[in-house]
Amino acid sequence: MKGSVMRAAFGRPKAKLCLLRTLDPAKGGEGAEVLPGPRPRPEDAPIRTGGLVRRITPLFTLLVAAVLAGVAVLSGSVQAAAGFLGAAVVVVAALAVYLIVARARAVAADAQREARTARAAEERLRLTLEGAQVGLGLIGSDGRWNQVNAALCGILGRSHDELLTLTLEQVTAEHDRAAVEEALATLQSGDILRWEAQVFQVRGDGTRVPVEITVAAGAHTPDGVGMFVQEADVSVRRRLEGLRDGLVAVRQVILAGPTWELAAPQILGGLCACLDWDVAQYWAVDTELRALRLHHGWHRDAAGLEVFYKQSRRLSIAIGEGLLGRVWQSGVVAALEDLTQAGDYERAAAAQEAGLKCAVALPVVTGGAVTGVIELLAPEVRHIENDLVTMLSTVGVEIGQFIQRAETSQALRRSEADHRAIYERSPIGIARISGEGELLEGNPALLEMLAHDFETMRSQAWPDLLRAYDQAAGRSRIPPLLAGITDGRSVQLRAATGDGRWLWLQLTATPIPDPTGVPEHVLVMVEDVTTVRDSQDKLADALESQRGANATLEKLDRTKTEFLSIVSHEFRTALTGIQGFSELIRDGGLEPDEVRAYGGYIFNDADRVNRLIGDMLDLDRMESGKMSIRTGDVDINEVMSDAIQRAGSSTTAVEFKADLDPRLPIVAGDRDRLIQVVSNLVNNAVKYSPDGGIVTMSTRSEGGFALVSVSDTGVGIPPDEISHVFERFRRVRSGAAQSIPGTGLGLTIVKQIVEMHGGKIWVESAVGHGSAFHFTLPLAAETAPLQRRHG
Predict the structure, then answer these.
(1) pLDDT at 25
(2) Within a 10 A sphere around the Cβ of 727, how many other Cβ atoms?
(3) How far is the CA of 217 from the CAs of 96, 151, 188, 220, 228, in angstroms?
(4) 661 DSSP assignment
(5) Does 383 or 650 have the greater pLDDT score?
(6) Radius of gyration (C-alpha) of the chain in whole angstroms
């Protein structure tokens, strides 16, 4: 009984006893019913006959003495009294002897009855022991078996006689022997009355059997305390519990373990602990070597097992080779129940040295393929049951699934870490926004680019960017940002930063749908393209300038070609005239008037060549920056009058009118260059008035400048040509003016000279109505003390 026990059966007083745990609970059970003080020794029961005689003798003696005294008094003789006293003593003695004999006969009869009862009880006990389903036995104080039943012999796999030669410690497995010895010593000392535990015992064939053992203290003998032992074989129950616990342990580790590398030692140790194996090893398939290599191992604390593990680490097992290779090849559980009888076990010698005699291997299946093999080894021969094979097959599949999940999870974690690192360290801004357009996350590059913290970015800057995106997308015919439609095109827009700068940003949106296909988030890549945009703008400007320069060069090339053609024509015409008239004069026979006329023609042609050469030299000086002016006081009215006089003497087809301001102050300039300007404008007015007309020359004062105008009533200039008349080599190519000869250099030189004087020149013209050229010159310092730029 647990809890309390009545000790009256051993002649001891009744007592209420408490429980006492053993000093090593991990190695077995608990002790019960411990007396608080030293155990009392049993006492012998007194004999009733002696007490009865002792009680009767005094009374009987007094009675006899009284009778003798009465007789003596009545007879008056002392001798008679003495005789009677002697006779009384004899009678008393005889009576006592009779009573003693009668009592002894009764006691003998009781003893015979008790002996028959004891023999019957012993026979009943023997029959009970022999018929019991559990193992029962008695051991002495030295632990040796004194009596055992058949069930105990069957549990321990030994004969009755063999078992009586052994002790309880000798049939106990080595790793449980210390706990049993400690329990027997505690029972001998009287500290506990009963001890219960689960231990392994060794059968006659060397195999181990798990038993539930109960040892109870019996009666004291001269040799010590005898003990009663009860054992029950729990192999089946323990095996089923081990299968269940092993599967549960594996699943618990699988659920809690993050990776196979961390979970493998726990799984291997759990299988050994629950299924009672001493060694567990995981062999993984090396795809490069096409062999199995030991990756993880677990074993009980033993030097031989550590050596076996180290030897296994050096091996490579090919497919189909030995137990592990066959399991790899077949993909099913296989076992070698007795390694000493196995001829193809790859580590037979090492297993023998480590004391291992049984091995079972199970495949680890991942995705339908064997990716590893788990091997379990034990130090005794075992029979592998079908339920163990089923359980190990299930474990192999579940471990394979766990490895696949762990590898997938690890790959996902690595991928997530890589993406997070890319996100955090990317030089391009990355924003993740919700389907409603709210900024959910922005990487450091985005916040640094726009010089905002996240909260400001989310509440202020991002809504502005969203509106700017949609506006720019609309102009480019791209769907809005939150439309969930993308064609991979980017949108460029300008945005203000938190520190007041303006940037060109390029935004590329990619929708991220949920499992139903509805856009859940939008990933926006934001790139600062300000430098690129500026470079593109500069490049565009440069290209435009280059195109303009090329066009100008082409135009100049054409103009120069035309110029050379015109100059050649002008020189040829002048030289032809000079040569022709010179030949006429040389031949003689001419009248004096004819000679003078021909001489005038020669002079005019020579003057034309001289002016042409002068224009070309001036153009060269202008391009080389060597043209200079000698500033002095010039009466511009006088220059105008001289020009009218020279032009009037050389042509009669044009009428000259002068509208000169007599109060016009002196101007500051180079007289020769100003004569060149006025002469060129007058010659152009005469040249572009082929049908005659009026050339009007006027001057007047306007602020600090003198305004000079030369007007004609000739053919005029087309509107599209007005802006080009001052360009070098440029001549009017449309209308009646295109047939009028000229080099296209005069007005270019005029404009350069006027601007070198600090003035400006422009033209007003209408086709068929003539043209008016105006230019300004600054007045001399004494007449215009306050000089200002004429604009």
Answers:
(1) 39
(2) 16
(3) 45, 21, 8, 9, 6
(4) -
(5) 383
(6) 68
Q: Bridge-partner residues for 450, per DSSP?
A: none
61-75, 510-524, 589-603, 642-656, range with the lowest pLDDT: 61-75
* For helices 671-687 and 746-756, angle between their N-to-C axes, nearest 10 degrees: 150
Quick: pLDDT tens for 97-151: 888 888 888 888 888 888 888 888 777 766 766 667 789 989 988 889 988 888 9
Strand pairing class (429-434; 519-528): antiparallel
Q: DSSP letter string over 611-644?
A: HHHHHHHHHHHHHHT------EEE-HHHHHHHHH
pLDDT above 50 for 44: no
Q: How far is CA 497 from CA 424, 446, 448, 525, in A?
A: 20, 11, 9, 17
**Long-range pairs of 63-71 with CB within 8 A, sequence gap ≥ 24:** 64/88, 64/89, 64/91, 64/92
Dihedral angle over CA of 326, 312, 363, 264, nearest 10: 180
Rounded Cα gap, residues 378 and 337, in angstroms: 10
**Burial (0-12, 13-18, 19+ Cβ within 10 Å), 29:** buried
Q: Which amino acid is at 591?
A: E
CA 379 to chain centre: 46
Closest CA to 322 of 295, 308, 296, 343: 343
Closest CA to 372 of 386, 358, 381, 362: 362
C-alpha–C-alpha distance, residues 664 and 705, integer Å:
10
Dihedral sign, CA of 721, 723, 724, 725? positive
Residues 186 and 195: beta-carbon distance below 8 Å: yes
Report the alpha-carbon distance of residue 791 to residue 783 in Å, rounded.
20
Closest CA to 232 of 190, 201, 272: 201
> Where are the extended beta strands (E) located within 80-193?
135-139, 145-148
Cα–Cα distance between 295 and 375 in angstroms, integer?
12
Q: What are the respective helix, strand and coil percentages of the chain, to the nearest 5?
A: 50, 25, 25
